[in-house]
Each structure stands twice: as structure tokens, then as C-alpha cells.
Amino acid sequence: MSSVLVVVADGAKARYFTSEVKELAQGEIGSYLLEDASLVNPDQMEEGKELWSGPESQAGHYRQGRSTAHSYDDHRQDHELEYERRFARSITEQILLRTHTHPLQRLVVIAEPRLLGLLREVLIPKLPKALELTEIDKNLCHLRPDELYEYLTKRSLLVHV
After folding, report:
1. What's the pTM value of the predicted model, to 2 decimals?
2. CA-CA distance, 52 to 103, in Å (whole number)?
3. 4-44+73-154 falls under which CATH superfamily?
């Protein structure tokens, strides 16, 4: 296994990559990223999934009988933040499992800014001190492995062989 682990995440999924070396034609050697695992946020699994009840319970309105509407705050943002917090803990568990079972030298975590902040809270205190951590606050979850490899090598975060 590679000594570099790259984790790319957004609110819905996390993808785990290792930097691998392969032999090309005529004895040449090339590097690439291998996606060897992924994790899906169960609270975001179905596209378009309704996390809340029907349109009658839209935030800010409560109708009792035929009287006027009363305003209220159903704290949806708090719930969404808690869903992301749980997902950040799941991502962290997978990273820590790999740090304990494989000799990693570098961890590159790429996530949208809010998720990256949540990951920092739970991940950094638990990481081995010798592990080099690089953080990038972007949503690059949509990139193919070859595009992600190119992005990281241009920023000197992966060694291009």
C-alpha cells in the first residue's frame, strides 16, 4: 500500500485514494491514484430525499386550523450540521483505521470548507504526530482519479514518477 492517503469529501460522500506506481511499456514507471474505498453519508443517500415532512411543515410557518400562520424556527440548520458532524466522524474512523493498519507518511484531506472544519475538530487530535497532514478546502469530489492526480501533482502534493 502507498504511504500517501488522499481523502476527498463533500457532504454526501467521501472517496479514499492511494498513490500507486505501475510499470508502463518498455520498463518505464508511472504513478496514478487508485480509488480503493468510498463512504456515503446515509443522511444524504437518496438524491432529492426529503429529510423533512411535506410542504405544510416548511420552515417558518405553522397553521392551526384556519387562523393566521405563526412563525417558528424548526432548527433545520442545526440538524443538517449534526448530520455533517456524524459523517465527519465516520470519515475520521476510516482514516484512523488506515493509519493503524498501514504505514502512512502523508494524509491529504480535500473537502468543502464546512466539512473540512468539522473534520479538523475530530481528526487532528487523533492523528499520529509523525503523519504529515495537508488540507485543501475545496469540493473536488466530482473529479476522476486522473484529474485529481493531475491537480495534486501540479501543487507538488504527490510525487510524479
Report:
1. 0.76
2. 43
3. eRF1 domain 2 (3.30.420.60)
